[in-house]
Each structure stands twice: as structure tokens, then as C-alpha cells.
Specification:
With 440 residues, the protein is of the alpha+beta class. It has two domains: 6-174 and 309-438, Rossmann fold (3-Layer(aba) Sandwich), CATH 3.40.50.1240; 180-307, Phosphoglycerate mutase-like (Rossmann fold, 3-Layer(aba) Sandwich). The protein is 39% helix and 12% strand. Strands 1, 2, 5, 6, 7, 8 and 9 form a seven-stranded mixed sheet that branches. Strands 3-4 form a two-stranded antiparallel sheet. The longest helix has 21 residues, at 95-115.
């Protein structure tokens, strides 16, 4: 695959836009002096004197893609409106996604240079850096575009192990140990996440979101209405757990997720917000309510404890191996929202809602970043961040910089206590990985 250097010229022509700042990580109210890139992550006074970044492991979601379904799919039947003219084939990275990911790579380069982990025009030695993607077009392309911004003269070859369009078992969120006992336990866990009446409560809690979605789609005027599909069912959710398949579902939430996913992607791609909502004027909160449908879909399928450690097992092993690989200083693993969601659930991340985002769990292009730090006391420490572009950045493709950075949120792990500088002991984090791996 040829490297997309031509797109870099396009980036220079795009105007800048300031992102919103989040609750856990803000560019304001930092205690470090201004002038370096790390001040976008609040640090105690003297942090940079006490710690040096030695390695970074990233688990990234691919950037903006076209919807997973093409012509003749459910998307064409549940609305009479024309969808955005996507710039790529179904499920593939869009042109905007490529530009945005190149920008993100450029930003991470500036961040790592500022931390002293690499030089501005780094030519890494063999084994120092790894770029590994699931064998889908959107993940390979995301990793390639990121590498173009991150290492612009290194001619990075992205590692992938299967024919394009084939799921790599490392990234495939499939269940590999399934028996009656597992199914019973997993269904009980999934049901218990939502209320006293289990899966029935999912539909009840989503009812107003579904109504909003139906109105935006003008579902009653759609081709599907001829077959009596006038609304999205709230009481028919069923979960399927089968060996060597992804957790799956039937019912209204599945259909709603497809529409929610496509509308949010259309919102990022279409400059006219009213046109993106098929002529409806939506508030920011209403866009968040539409995105919440797909957040809940992912939570239902991938974040119950028994499910998470099952589907994330090979990826947890890979990430722990990267943290322990001698001489490694940067790893970029590119997969999907289900990968980030299941890994965080398996590591027992505390509940979170990402500030400044429409997708509150795993926004498009978001990255779970594990930083490994060496303290002046000789100890090794770790920090987990979710780094993601704001909706404004996704929609306007501004140049990312020290002043116009993406958003970041510090992830907390239940039962682990950070030190006074906000870092976990690396041994404790590795033990949490091991615990999740052994729970498989």
C-alpha cells in the first residue's frame, strides 16, 4: 500500500478550530508552566522532573469509515432520504478519515518529541516501534495514515497477517470458550447491567432515543413502513452467544444501532448539520442521544465481565507482551470500538462518559494510550488515557497542535490506587492484565 503523503499538503489548507476541554483532562488549570505539549494533561508541579516517558502502547479504533451496509441494506429501507455520498466503499476508511488520522499521527509525533521519546524525523531502529492492524481495509489504512504523520520519512510498513477483509483472531471480538455454564453466567451479567427486569430494561431506557431516531429517519415514510415497520421495537432484544462468533443480538436495538452508526458518521462528514439530520434541526444533546444508542449496543454485547475477558483475551495478551518487549518504545495496534470496550471492561475500568464527545465510550478514531514512565526513584509507572478528537475537529479537520490538541480522559481502574502524581505502579497494571488473561 503506497503511503498517503499527498494528503499532507491538503492538511495545510484547512482552518483551525478549538476543541472543547474535558472534565478529567483540561488544557486550562494546569500547574506546569505553559509552553510544552504535556500541559494538556494536568500534572502536579515538578512532574516532568520526576518522570521520563519510556514507552507508549496504543490501542486505536479506526477513523471515519463508510457505514457497514451498502445499497439494498437496512439503511436504504428505513428512510426515504438519501444518505451522504460516501467517499469509500462500505466499511472502508473515508477520505476524511485518512486526513484526520494523518493529523493525529502528526500530533502524537509532536507529543512524543516533547516528551523526549523520539526525534522529530525519527528513523527507528529495528524493533523499537511496531504498527500492527487488523486485516480490514479501515484498520490497515488507519495505521498507515497515522504512521505517515508520526514517522513521515521512515516508510513504515504496517503489519497485518491475513488477506484484506479477513478478521485477525487477535482483533476479532469472538467468543472462544462457550458452554452452557458460560452462557448462563454471561446472560445473567448482561441482564444485571440494566435494571431489575434485565434486557427488558434496555428497551425501556432507550425508548426516547428510539423515538428521536424514528423522527430523524422519518421512518413512517420509509420503504420499510410498507411492511409495517413504523417504529423500533423496545421489547424484543435477544442475545446470541456462540463459539467462534462475535456476541450478537436480534431485535430493535440491532436495527437502531445500524441507523445510529450511519447518522453519526454522516454528521461527521456532512458540513450542513441540518442536512446531516435529513432536514431536522437537532441540538448537541439530541446528537448525543442518537449516539447513545450505539454506545449501549456496544456495552450490551462486549462489556459484561465474562464476555469481556473472553473476547479480549488474545488482545490482552498482545498488549501485555508489548509492554514487556525489551527495546520497544512505541506500539500502535489498530482495531475497533469493540476492542477498546472489551479491553477496558476486562481491566475493570471505572464507569466513564467522555466529555466533549458525542460518542461517550469509544469515539471514532479514539485511542487507548498506555504510557510507561520511569521515575527518578527507579520505579516504573503507568498511566491510561483515552485520546480522541472532538466532534468539531472531526467535522472541520483542523490542524492539530500544542494549542489545538485532541481531547484526553484519564482512565481509572477499579481497585488500583494511583500515586500522588496520578500514576499506577507498572507492576500493578501488569498484574491487572494477568488477572484478566487468567480469568478467560
Amino acid at each position: 500500500m503506497k503511503r498517503p503523503f499527498g494528503l499532507l499538503l491538503c492538511l495545510v489548507l484547512v482552518a483551525a478550530c478549538s476543541p472543547r476541554t474535558g472534565q478529567a483532562v483540561s488544557s486550562a488549570a494546569t500547574e506546569e508552566p505553559s509552553g510544552n505539549i504535556q500541559e494538556w494533561i494536568p500534572r502536579p508541579n515538578g512532574f516532568s522532573d520526576r518522570y521520563a516517558l519510556t514507552e507508549m502502547v496504543i490501542l486505536s479504533r479506526h477513523n471515519i469509515r463508510s457505514p457497514l451496509s451498502g445499497s439494498g441494506s437496512v439503511l436504504s429501507r428505513i428512510t426515504s432520504h438519501e444518505w451522504f455520498p460516501w467517499t469509500s466503499a462500505p466499511s472502508e476508511l473515508s477520505l476524511r478519515g485518512g486526513v484526520l488520522e494523518t493529523q493525529m499521527g502528526q500530533f502524537f509525533r509532536k507529543w512524543m518529541v516533547d516528551e523526549g521519546l523520539m526525534k522529530d524525523n525519527e528513523l527507528p531502529s529495528q524493533g523499537e516501534m511496531r504498527f500492527y492492524a487488523n486485516s480490514m481495509q479501515r484498520t490497515i489504512a488507519t495505521a498507515q495514515y497515522f504512521s505517515s504523520g508520526f514517522l513521515p520519512i521512515a516508510n513504515v510498513e504496517v503489519e497485518h497477517h491475513y488477506y484484506v477483509g479477513t478478521m485477525d483472531p487477535i482483533f476479532n471480538p469472538q467468543l472462544t470458550k462457550v458452554d452452557d455454564s458460560f452462557k448462563e453466567r454471561a446472560i445473567k451479567e448482561i441482564s444485571g447491567m440494566w435494571g431489575k427486569e434485565g434486557l427488558k430494561d434496555v428497551g425501556r431506557k432507550m425508548a426516547s432515543n428510539y423515538t428521536l431516531l424514528e423522527n430523524v429517519l422519518d421512518l413512517r415514510d420509509s420503504p420499510a413502513a410498507a411492511n409495517d415497520t413504523l417504529f423500533i421495537n423496545t421489547d424484543d432484544l435477544q442475545i446470541k452467544l456462540e463459539p467462534y462468533k462475535e456476541p450478537a443480538m436480534t431485535g430493535g436495538l440491532k436495527m437502531a444501532n445500524s441507523a445510529s452508526d450511519a447518522l453519526i458518521l454522516q454528521y461527521y462528514e456532512e458540513p450542513d448539520e441540518v442536512k446531516a439530520a435529513f432536514g431536522h434541526e437537532l441540538t448537541r444533546e439530541e446528537w448525543e442521544n442518537i449516539a447513545e444508542i450505539k454506545d449501549w449496543y456496544g456495552d450490551v454485547l462486549f462489556t459484561a465481565p465474562s464476555v469481556a475477558v473472553n473476547v479480549a483475551h488474545p488482545l490482552l495478551q498482545t498488549m501485555l507482551s508489548e509492554l514487556r518487549t525489551e527495546g520497544r518504545k512505541f506500539s500502535f495496534l489498530c482495531g475497533h470500538d469493540s476492542n477498546i470496550a472489551s479491553v477496558l471492561a476486562a481491566l475493570r475500568a471505572e464507569e466513564y462518559s467522555l466529555p466533549g464527545a458525542i460518542e461517550k465510550k469509544t469515539p471514532i478514531g479514539s485511542k487507548l494510550v498506555i504510557g510507561k514512565w520511569r521515575g527518578k526513584d527507579g520505579g516504573l509507572y503507568a498511566e491510561l488515557l483515552l485520546v480522541y478528537a472532538s466532534p468539531e475537529q472531526l467535522r472541520t479537520t483542523p490542524m492539530l497542535s500544542l494549542q489545538n490538541h485532541p481531547l484526553a480522559y484519564r482512565v481509572s481502574l477499579s481497585g488500583l490506587i494511583p500515586n500522588s502524581d496520578g500514576l499506577y505502579r507498572l507492576d500493578d497494571l501488569e498484574s491487572r492484565f494477568t488477572e484478566a488473561i487468567n480469568a478467560y
